[in-house]
Amino acid sequence: MSVLGIDIGNENSVVATIEKGAINIVRNDLSERLTPTLVGFTEKERLIGDNALAKVKSNFKNTCRNIKNLIGKIGTNLDEDDLELNESYGDLVACEYNYLGYMVGYKNEVINISAVRVLSTLLHFLIKLAEKYVGKECSEIVLAYPPTYTNSQKECLLVATKLINIKALRFISDNTAVALDYGMYRMREFKENQGVVVAFVNIGYANSCICIARFYTKKCEILSDLADCTLGGRNIDNEIIKYINNLFIDSYKINALYKNYPTQMCEMGNGKLNKYLDLNNKDLSKIDNKIRVKLQDVAVKTKKILSANNETSIHVECLYEDYDCQGSINRETYENICSNFFLTKLKTLLDKSIATSKVKVEEIQSIEILGGTTRVPFIQRFLVEYFNKPLSKTLVADESVARGCLLSAAMLSKHYKVKEYECIEKIQHPISVQWYNMNEVPNATTTLNNADVNNDNGTTTTTTTTNTTTNTNTTTNTPVSVKTKVHKLYTCDSLKKKVNKIVIPEKGSIKVTAFYEENPDLPTNCVKELSSCILKVNDKHDKIVESHVMTSFSHYDTFTFLGANTVSKTVIKTKDERKKMDEKNEGEKNTTSAATTGTGTGTSADDHLKNEKQNEGEKSEANNTTSATSTDGNTTTDSAGGESKFTNENHNHSKNKNELKKGEEGKVQTCYTSIPVELLPAPGTYSAKDIYTFSEAEINMQHSDTIEAERLKHINELETIIYETRDRMNSMYTEFATDEEKNKVLLKLDDIENFIYDNMDENKNAFIKKKEEI
Ligand SMILES: Nc1ncnc2c1ncn2[C@@H]1O[C@H](COP(=O)(O)OP(=O)(O)OP(=O)(O)O)[C@@H](O)[C@H]1O
Ligand SMILES: [Mg+2]
């Protein structure tokens, strides 16, 4: 059994594993440490990783890219200028629960497949690669997610792991993974109580992540964990693509990218390449993705050359019909066209990161750079200037995130013993809760919105409309006026590990909903509701003063309702009061037993207990857990158990009451009773049925891929046998055969070779038979 740390990048995926106590990066079938994050669909099979890359030029329409940025992104009402729409070479569509996905051709059909499902395909492929590499089963993983992910995006990540039945131990932010990789190996350099502040700048293909963290011997505090998912290497590629296209327009008056606008130059300096040049006339102005793929390839090569050289030539063969594109670009021009927009956005992100971390730039002791795009010289120069410090490159630029995930996996897995290194993280987006009494709204299964949030930590009451929801993020309006209470729960300064308490001073059926507060950092069009629950507080129980709902974050960094308690308070009676009550009870008992003959009466202690229980109206909750009993609200003893436990405790308690110490009478006794919470799926939560259906579909596709791979293997083997036998007939077998025999065999081989090309679609048995024939 082995554990894996997986970094799914928008361009490259990296898998880390442990071998002989050391971290090892998995090499794929091409012996590469980075595997392209691409999944292609064809008429016969799915192509994943390098296989998808090999065919991307001819199969770009059916090749899923930018998978990580599309996970859990809502596909309806998207702005046509949306970067992800423009970065896709095929068609993006809204799939289940409105999550974005790809429209691809697979086995002669057009299918819509969500990015979540495509991710599960990729994950399965990477895990199988790792298992082949380490020669062991790998069934536990830790995945990294970009800091921009919202709650529902992390839930989608979890769904992707469920679809392939893999155990995700934890999800961590890209930045936390890097901090862990950094801190773990430098424990001895840090001090127990004097922190070292380090900034990490990770710029990849489609994301730029900035992290500022303070490191101590055994822990680090993540002071800021930010990212911009619209800034990365692809923006630079776009500028070079436009530059080359403009060169072509200059030479031939042909706009290869937008055919219907021969003389219109592409607008430079924004890092974007729009699907449409002119949004008003989409039919005429659509980008030619075939040209774009060709140019992308050249642009990336050009960019990489310019990272190490001052000039490079540009040559694109047959860019448009028979016309080649020729030209050159020097570092100065390259930087002129790319640096302005890029550095402006990067500076905004850095400024925000510094502000969030509440440290001064001068306090940052080291700047670590990682991610492929930090190899660009103008970015490095800018960072040196910004931080006024030399850059440090001690982390493995492409592998640090995967290594951090692996360390986290090893810490959590029971199969390994690893020194603990704690990363203390904060909440990314402020969260509030709102609740209302459902008894006030008959027949309501509702979602609340439009609530006002109080600025302090108190609770506001606001009248809001409720909407009946379906299990999507669309709402059908049936407005009802209801009083909702809104409570700020987590601010950006709250720690992720913190357990928070929502105090609800009302009884009845209470619906509690947690949601992201409106804030400019939230992605537009995201699912704002995090989770809802209903708790039923017995309104006949007059001792209940309030209820507490506890919340926290799961291992997947998703918001969770941990449970709820009712809090009841009773005043401990004096001896005289108790005596009077006992007498009263006795009287009542006699009348009851006189009225109900044939019913067991029990002992007086039992009756006392029964009465007390009835008094407290606790009956309906007695099968729940009684969590604590305390006097004076000072001492609390936790105890768990069912009804009998509750009964025994009360029994003991009633005994104890007789032996009350002086002065205890009249004090307030607090009783915490845990009550069940009914969790309601947030909009966009995958149902168990859907998980089952998609998981089955994934297994079928895997099966079909295996059959196809086997078929291709037999075709390859048959071809090899044909070539080898032909070769031998003309060399080592010559002296053992007459010319006639030789010709007969050679003719047969030609026949079989023709058979292959005429029957490419036959199943494997046809080719096995031919192998046997030879
Ligand atoms: N020598 C280089 N010079 C310039 N850019 C480079 C160089 N090497 C790689 N890149 C760029 O780095 C980017 C890929 O970096 P990386 O592998 O870190 O991204 P990723 O992790 O897949 O994406 P992300 O983190 O954004 O999801 C690509 O845009 C690639 O062109
Ligand atoms: Mg990355």
Automatic annotation (TrEMBL):
Compositionally biased region (Basic and acidic residues): 577-589, 605-621, 646-665
Signal peptide: none
Low complexity composition bias: residue spans: 591-604, 622-642
Molecular function via GO: ATP binding; ATP-dependent protein folding chaperone
Keyword DNA damage recorded: no
Protein origin, superkingdom: Eukaryota
SUPFAM superfamilies recorded: Actin-like ATPase domain (SSF53067), Heat shock protein 70kD (HSP70), C-terminal subdomain (SSF100934)
InterPro entries: ATPase_NBD, Heat_shock_70_CS, HSP70_C_sf, Hsp_70_fam
PANTHER family named among the record's database cross-references: HSC70CB, ISOFORM G, HSC70CB, ISOFORM G-RELATED
Protein name: Heat shock protein hsp88-like
